[in-house]
Write a structure and sequence with these properties.
The chain is an alpha/beta fold and about 650 residues long. It has helices spanning about 20-35, 60-75, 180-185, 205-215, 270-275, 315-340, 355-370, 390-405, 415-425, 430-455, 465-470, 490-500, 505-515, 535-540, 545-555, 560-570, 585-600, 600-605, 635-640; strands at about 5-10, 40-45, 85-95, 95-105, 110-115, 140, 145-150, 155, 165-170, 190-195, 220-225, 245, 250-255, 260-265, 290-295, 345-350, 380, 405-410, 455-460, 480. The protein has 19 helices and 20 strands. The longest helix has 26 residues, at about 315-340. The mean pLDDT is about 95.
Length: about 650
């Protein structure tokens, strides 16, 4: 329950139709099982106390009395359960029968929420038995206790800031104007749905889409529990498809006909962060609601939720392929529009044989093909310096030839040596000046050749480098259009790999695969025994860690200590073929990330134009309006005090 996480459960109670007493025992058993898994919000299905398919038996006073007695029994049982619990039953009030969800906590019935939308189409006939729910809460007496009754009830937790729970019932979620919409605008961050949705072919897929869509549109967590075993098979079958979603993502989904208890960790802090960020998420219905507090014990339990170690890269291979196609198309489209606008037919690209310049070249190839331009108009320049190795040099040359680009070779050694003399820099002192002089000389060459050829310089730097400031100011930091500015380093690798697999040019594929196997390096220090001497990730840290930090800081608004916690859960145990990192290493590089991210904003404040690709971007004209003089102290303090 630290960092805004709360474990929730959706469960299906196997029912005996019209037997509330037996069902109450089963409900208590199931609630106990969910509580053993440390669930703090437990949701049972619609009408679970009686069963959904009782039909005209709902008219029977005997059934209604037994259902009420069962509710009181379950409420009493809940006194020893540290959770907010929702169960469904038929309930009579003021001469009308309602399909309700009862909210229980620590032995009390906190409220009753009636179902508003009663379907009377196809197989449904609910209006025959029930009265539609009403919004404004009233009060009823149950066993000498006053209980709020109405749709506009919210339940606010006292120990998880921002955890406010709203409830709707089955068909309510299938309507154009759902009760959950109003609940969310009134402050609910978690919606629970007690459902009894029968199965038909294709309905499970649609139901999944509906739950994901509601959680995304309303920027909330959504817990969906539905009926299964025990309902009448007279005309229908119920599949117990329990689901838990958060902001458009399905966190957990039960198997059809398995009657599973499904649990997941909802991230309330992330939901609150997203709503703060989206100024179109309008609120204003608070005054129409009765907000009821409920108490939970503060409990630290193992985090069940898992986090993918490469959040910028899709897990699914088919989706990954589609995403790569789309990203390359977006990058190429941005460059195409810039060339169309200026009437340009040429570009200048510094080709190093590394990953970033390789991706930039592939984007240029795609743009030139689609514009119908002569590939010779792609002027690629390899600029050997003091750290250039034969491997990267040969790969750069081979790539240019494979795609039909114009290849120029301009060594920077003499020019940089003269410059060293001019500024009094010893060539034997391999400091930052030694390195940056080379980067700026290369940029000067690119800019001047572009002027000479009536072309634009295409930048190669990626988003991860921009986040860390791992670029020479007015060196590789500068260009006339940056095609990779929206692509993080972990994704660059997958884009190049995708192109290598997709191309029909065997030689190009061979070169691209060798680029993928080459260590990431700026190659600004002299090689050792002909091999690359300067490994970027040894100096600045692993890019997969930095991309992880970047995503959860900017996209999810996580605090440094929360990022550290989930990073430890994610990276300390690696799958086959992946690298693991101990907690001390993760902490070391996270501190580096925050120090560099804040200190290097001045480089991002004057970035060249470049297309936004994903939901995280660092452009000063778009997603990241950040002062160059912001202090990182309070972020670093959280890490120092772990």
């Amino acid at each position: 329950m630290k960092h805004g996480f709360v474990k929730v459960a959706a469960l299906t109670v196997p029912v005996k139709l019209a037997d509330p007493r037996t069902n109450a025992q089963t409900i208590k058993t199931k609630i106990g099982e969910a509580a053993e898994r440390h669930a703090k919000i437990i949701v049972c299905q619609e009408l679970c106390i009686t069963g959904y398919t009782c039909q005209d038996l709902f008219y029977q006073q005997t059934l209604l009395d037994e259902a009420k007695a069962a509710l009181l029994d379950i409420a009493k049982f809940s006194a020893d359960i540290d959770a907010l619990i929702f169960v469904g039953l038929p309930f009579e009030a003021e001469g009308k029968l309602y399909n309700v969800a009862a909210a229980l906590c620590r032995g009390e019935i906190l409220g009753l929420i009636p179902k508003r939308s009663l379907p009377t189409y196809n197989e449904f006939y609910e209006r025959r038995h029930f009265t539609p729910g009403f919004e404004t809460p009233t009060e009823i007496v149950i066993n000498d206790s006053i209980v709020p009754f109405g749709m506009n009830l919210l339940f606010e937790c006292d120990v998880v800031p921002g955890l406010i729970v709203g409830c709707e019932i089955c068909e309510d979620a299938w309507t154009p104007s759902t009760p959950s919409t109003k609940h969310a605008l009134a402050g609910a961050t978690l919606i629970v749905n007690l459902s009894a949705s029968p199965e038909t072919i294709g309905k499970a897929e649609y139901r999944t889409m509906l739950v994901k869509s509601l959680s995304g549109r309303l920027v909330c967590g959504y817990v969906y529990a539905t009926a299964g075993q025990g309902e009448s098979s007279q005309d229908l079958v119920f599949g117990s498809q329990n689901m838990i979603a958060e902001y458009g993502t399905l966190l957990a989904g039960g198997r059809l006909f398995a009657n599973d208890i499904v649990t997941a960790d909802i991230d309330v802090e992330r939901i609150r962060c997203e709503r703060r960020r989206m100024n179109t998420f309008e609120t204003g219905a608070e005054g129409e609601y009765l907000v009821l507090p409920f108490h939970l014990a503060k409990e630290d339990t193992p985090l069940e939720r898992t986090f993918y170690r490469r959040p910028f890269v899709p897990k699914d291979e088919l989706l990954k392929k589609e995403r790569c196609e789309t990203i390359l198309a977006m990058q190429a489209e941005g460059l195409k529009q810039r060339l169309r606008h200026i009437g340009g037919k040429k570009i200048v690209l510094g080709l190093s044989g590394g990953l970033d310049s390789t991706l930039a070249l592939l984007v240029c190839v795609k743009a030139f093909e689609e514009l119908g331009l002569d590939p010779a108009g792609m002027i690629t320049i390899t600029m050997p310096g003091f750290g250039t190795t034969g491997r990267t040099y040969n790969n750069a040359c081979d790539m240019a030839r494979c795609v039909g680009a114009t290849l120029k070779e301009i060594s920077i050694k003499k020019a940089v040596e003269v410059h060293f003399e001019d500024i009094g820099q010893s060539a034997d002192v391999h400091d930052v000046t030694y390195e940056n002089c080379q980067a700026r000389e290369r940029t000067q060459i690119l800019m001047d050749v572009a002027n000479k050829e009536n072309a634009i310089v295409v930048g190669t730097g990626d988003m991860s480098e921009l986040a860390l400031g791992w670029a020479t100011y007015n060196g590789d930091h500068m260009s006339m259009y940056g095609v990779n500015a929206g692509v993080p380093k972990t994704l660059v690798r997958h884009l190049v790999r995708f192109f290598a697999q997709d191309t029909k040019n065997d030689k190009l594929s061979e070169v691209l695969n060798d680029v993928l196997n080459t260590p990431v390096s700026p190659e600004l220090l002299p090689p050792k025994d002909g091999e690359i001497a300067q490994i970027t990730e040894d100096l600045v840290g692993p890019y997969e860690l930095h991309d992880f930090f970047l995503y959860y800081m900017l996209r999810c608004g996580y605090t440094p200590d929360k990022i550290y916690r989930i990073a430890c859960n994610t990276f300390t145990e690696a799958q086959e073929g992946e690298e693991s990192y101990d907690a001390a290493t993760i902490l070391k590089w996270e501190k580096t990330f925050y120090r560099r991210f804040f200190a290097q904003q001045f480089k991002r404040s004057c970035l060249p134009d470049g297309v936004k690709i994903g939901s995280v971007a660092v452009s000063p004209r778009g997603d990241l309006r950040m002062p160059s003089d912001a202090n990182a102290r309070i972020w670093l303090d959280l890490l120092e005090n772990l």
